[in-house]
Amino acid sequence: MMNTALRNGSRMRRHSAFSMYHLSLSPLPPARGFTLVETVVALAVITGALVGPFLLSSRSIFNARYAKSRLIAANLAQEGIEIIRSYRDNNVLAGDSWDAGLDDGSYRVDVICAGSPCRPAQAGSAANFASCAGSCSDLIKFDSASGIYSYSGTQETGFRRTVTIDRAPIDVGAGSRSDAGVAAEKQMFVKSVVIWTDGRVSRAMQVDEILYDWR
Questions:
Q1: Which residues cross the membrane (predicted)?
Q2: In which band, very low, low, confident or very high, does the pLDDT at 176 lie, cut at 50, 70 and 90?
Q3: Where are the alpha helices (H) located in 25-156, listed in sequence order?
Q4: Which structural domain range is residue 183 located in?
């Protein structure tokens, strides 16, 4: 009877071992790959994640460059008005007519002057006060040592400036370029325009003012 029990136990152990071996050899389910649509969607998501920040960064750099160029152009345009104002004041201080040398026309004006005080009618003034036919084509230059923009700098910029003097009285409402309450010979309309190219786009900055004989 004991032998029978031992034989039964041996058969059970063999059956259990066979069952475990059989289970361990059961085939795995087949691996499922990506479909074409899923692959395209995944690539689109990855591309968007990479290109989005790049485009945003490029746009930010472009905006910063444009803002810098616009600021420089605004200062150069205002400087053109201030140079003519300085010429007028120096004419008066020298005892000349307030508008001596400031005839109607377009001019290339430079902040660096040949004389002291700087006046348009004095000898050597052609270097800093030259007549232009229409728009002045000379590029303004930058001197990195002094930080001055002029026509005698060392590094060319993309800016061109034309200063126009016009005494013809024209009343165009809010954009009037003459003062009806002042005699025509006592005033002049001065316009300073700076142009530059931003990529493939042409830009312009204009500042204008009426200057008077303040004596």
A1: 43-62
A2: low
A3: 36-93
A4: 39-212
